[in-house]
Amino acid sequence: WRIQNLERRTRLIANGDFSPMPLPRQNDELRDLANSVNEMAAKLAQYQEAMTRSERARLLDQVSGGLAHQLRNAVTGAKLAVQLHADTCAGGDREALVVAERQLSRMVTDLKRFFDLGRTGQRIERCSLRALIEEAVDLLRPQCQHAHTELMWKKPEIEASVNGDHGQLGHLILNLLGNAVEAAGPNGTVEVRLIQQESKWVIEISDTGPGPPPQVAARLFEPFVTGKPEGIGLGLSVAKQVAEAHGGTIAWTRENDRTCFRVELPMGG
Q1: How far apart are CA 4 and CA 10, in angstroms?
Q2: What SS3 class is residue 64?
Q3: Ranges of residues in the chain whose predicted pLDDT is under 50
Q4: The dihedral formed by the CA atoms of 136, 141, 142 and 143, expressed in degrees to the nearest 10
Q5: Contact in structure between 39 and 203 (CB atoms under 8 Å)
Q6: pLDDT value at position 29?
Q7: Are 154 and 245 in contact (CB under 8 A)?
């Protein structure tokens, strides 16, 4: 019967079930063989996961590049139309158009950075994290004022320079900050901090929103995983790729009714 169990287990593995089988109590060759089968199943499970991640990354590259290119062209056209219309308006209507133009400018900037992620390689240069955060805060402040969302950012004296791709790092920060503003919602609070810890810079972005839904919380950085009804689940996956491409990490926690995303990047030489 022990041989039959081994045979049954190998058939399950062939059908894609890589869960381990209980080892026989008797310490003999069949127990060693069962242990080897479990080791083989574990390795096959790892290979399957690696292939899945690779396929998702390939699909992500295809979707992100084409989608960002099309959207950037459409938004650029809309921005030009708003600019032309604003030139002929006066009073309150013109003010509303200026706000709309500012939001479209933000979308163009964000889409350009997203499109740049599809480039081969990185354009390595000295980047000021303080300046990148300041730029993202300036882009999102009108939206926060409109929604009565408090955006807290105390600019530090240090530049916090790193060696990296300016466009990719800017996309990472703007994406995380934009998500936080959206999550906090009207009358919510978003706080951005830039601190130094040993040989790395740490960016912390926290909000008073409800946090990710439980069904997606454990897979938040995977491509096409999202808790937003209108979302496509690419932003955080791209953010993770950018952080890791720069030798850093990204993680999130939920404490004291606040969601906090933390990005760690090595200090530039």
Answers
A1: 10
A2: helix
A3: 120, 269
A4: 80
A5: no
A6: 74
A7: no
